[in-house]
Specification:
The chain is of the alpha/beta class and 483 residues long. It contains ten helices and 21 strands. 21% of the residues lie in helices and 22% in strands.
């Protein structure tokens, strides 16, 4: 069990007032004024795979309604363009490389989220929240790393990606049977993936009903549309785009069911709902991949198509309906924002996220509180950063879709490409088509100075730098034990 001083300091349960935007909540240990939080995270969903972001060939009426009742965030980022790293950032408020999580952990990984790290679930536990995750975890599959050891009361889902199983198109002999876990027990292997979205949705609706009188944090981490794609009979053949569109329509249905559960129990005006994706589309899978729309490249790159994701937030009465935000924000900001809203204490170690509630709530003059957002990938390479309208990309190798993409679940089309030092004005060039390097020397100098700050703190394999602020991940010394 984890023991941290900040829990003791914040656990007395006395009432206090918290300012959030222009509103106030009187909150205490069991106060009904504590807001609920619902985080809905798709897997490999492209920037243009939601109706209000330009989806074609299928409809997303529930997400579109959520946007009309809430706010669209056009410049919302995952911290890295890959599964484990991006989820680590969402749940801890840290750049993934700060806490030692890189890439996509599989069944052979002997590491996972460290015991010293503090998740969103542990933050809200200071206020006696009920907590649950239904879906994909991907921060370590061994018992010490499972959600139930990191603040979640309930867990039902997959410990890692759904293609990490014996039916993988390229590595059939590498992966063991895919476990479906409830709590800390494997209840099935190689489950019917066509039922996963339905099962997650049913669990979510039941959880909301059981906790309608208490504050809760619900995290639904959809397996889809990560390959292999699978959809229930409810949506099979419903989309003009084929199986991929069917899958997105079922995710949209799930969002609708969860919103309906909130409404049914009278929780609409006391619940912040966030929908986003863990990274961009896996373009090499062709017709089984999503679309980045006007953005460059996709998953596995720090071009905008890999890290900029569709994001919609709704909280009736607190977030302005039908509004749009262009401030650059990141998943690292979710944890400190939630902590601020409920008056919880932040971890006693450095995190990278900031409270962005003024921006979310549309407060007058509210701006992104970050001077810079960093984009790392691969073996701790600082590949790009964004500051305001400007994005600088540092020379590195990346996978580019240069050939014919794959078809019907088989990947193809990637080749290694190399970029140089490049500068883009994202306000006028969302597709990163016009390299402005050399034209704005003052901007380049400032961005290089910001990069140097990151290299000192977080390191950078591209320049052979070791960061001073990096923490080690959890390490399993033997099965079932962690150091």
């Amino acid at each position: 069990m984890k023991r941290r001083a900040f829990f003791k300091a914040a656990g007395a349960g006395i009432g206090l007032s918290v300012t959030a935007g222009s509103g106030f909540w009187k909150i205490g240990r069991k106060s009904k004024g504590l807001p609920n939080f619902v985080i809905l995270l798709a897997d490999d969903l492209g920037y243009a795979d939601v109706g209000v972001f330009g989806a074609k060939g299928f409809e997303t009426p529930h997400l579109d309604r959520m946007a009309s009742e809430g706010r669209i965030f056009t410049d919302f980022y995952a911290s890295q363009p890959v599964c484990s790293a991006s989820r680590a950032s969402l749940l801890t408020g840290c750049y993934a490389n700060r806490i030692g999580i890189q890439g996509a952990l599989d069944h052979s990984a002997r590491q996972g989220i460290g015991d010293r790290e503090v998740t969103i679930a542990e933050i809200v536990k200071q206020k006696n929240y009920a907590t649950a995750i239904f879906g994909k975890w991907h921060l370590g599959h061994l018992p010490p790393f499972l959600p139930t050891r990191h603040g979640f009361d309930e867990y039902f889902g997959l410990p890692y990606s759904n293609d990490m199983w014996p039916n993988h198109p390229a590595n059939k002999s590498y992966y063991p049977p895919l476990p479906l876990i409830e709590g800390e027990m494997t209840i099935a292997t190689n489950p019917d993936q066509a039922q996963l979205t339905t099962w997650y949705t049913e669990h979510a609706a039941h959880f909301i009903g059981r906790n309608k009188a208490n504050p809760f944090l619900l995290y639904v981490a959809y397996t889809m549309p990560h390959v292999p794609l699978a959809v229930s009979d409810k949506f099979k053949g419903k989309s003009e785009q084929g199986l991929y569109g069917d899958v997105i329509m079922e995710i949209d249905w799930s969002v609708g069911e969860i919103l309906a559960a909130l409404a049914r129990h009278g929780l609409d005006e006391n619940t912040l709902v966030l929908f986003a994706s863990d990274n961009g589309p896996w373009l090499s899978y062709g017709n089984h991949a999503g679309s980045a729309g006007p953005l460059r490249e996709g998953k596995g790159t720090v071009w905008e198509g890999g890290i900029r994701v569709p994001c919609v937030m709704r909280w009736r009465g607190k977030i302005p309906a039908g509004s749009r935000c262009r401030e650059p924000l990141m998943t690292i900001d979710v944890l400190p924002t939630i902590a601020s809203l409920i008056g919880a204490k932040l971890p006693d170690h450095p995190i990278d996220g900031r409270n962005i509630w003024p921006v979310i709530s549309g407060a007058a003059g509210a701006k992104n509180p970050h001077e810079v957002l960093y984009f790392y990938y691969r073996a701790n390479e600082l590949q790009a950063l964004r500051s305001g309208r400007w994005k600088i990309v540092f020379p590195h190798l990346y996978n580019s879709l240069t050939g014919e993409p794959g078809h019907d679940g088989l990947p193809n089309g990637y080749a290694q490409a190399k970029c140089g030092l490049e500068l883009y004005d994202l306000e006028n060039d969302i597709g990163e088509k016009q390299n402005l390097i050399g034209r704005h020397p003052d901007v380049e100098k400032r961005l290089q100075e910001l990069a140097e700050r990151a290299r000192q703190d977080l390191g950078d394999a591209l320049t052979s730098r070791q960061g001073k602020g990096v923490r080690s991940p959890g390490q399993a010394v033997s099965k079932g034990n962690a150091s």
